[in-house]
Specification:
mainly beta, 11 strands, globular
């Protein structure tokens, strides 16, 4: 059974940085496309970033492009989200997700292909 555990959330002032990490257990990490999503209170869960199985292909939501960086380490079964120049509108609970992908270039920006989710980590950005 694949399990995902996020860490690294917290409170930061506008313009600051945080690095979220997601540890994945259960085997077969390199078979999964990984993603980060977020959900603010009263809002739908939204896509943030995705990375393909070996890290060659990435994509970001327009709202975070140029500020966030997703990366993965297949040797350590982990995926990170470096968040810089944070804004109050980045405040949300951030979720790590894993989806099986046949192609090494596959990335997913929708929630449906992701069958495994972490419990979430909260990020609060104050102005």
């Amino acid at each position: 059974q694949v399990q995902l555990v996020e860490s690294g959330g917290g409170s930061v002032q506008s313009g600051g940085s945080l690095k979220l990490s997601c540890a994945v257990s259960g085997g077969g990490f390199s078979l999964y496309t990984m993603g980060w999503f977020r959900q603010a209170p009263g809002k739908e869960r939204e896509f943030v970033a995705t990375v393909s199985r070996y890290g060659d292909n990435v994509d970001y939501a327009d709202s975070v492009k140029g500020r966030f960086t997703i990366s993965r380490n297949n040797a350590e079964n982990s995926v990170d989200l470096q968040m810089d120049s944070l804004k109050p509108e980045d405040t949300a609970t951030y979720y790590c997700a894993a989806g099986r992908a046949g192609s090494i270039q596959t990335i997913f920006t929708a929630t449906l292909p992701y069958h495994h989710w972490g419990q979430g980590t909260e990020v609060t950005v104050s102005s």
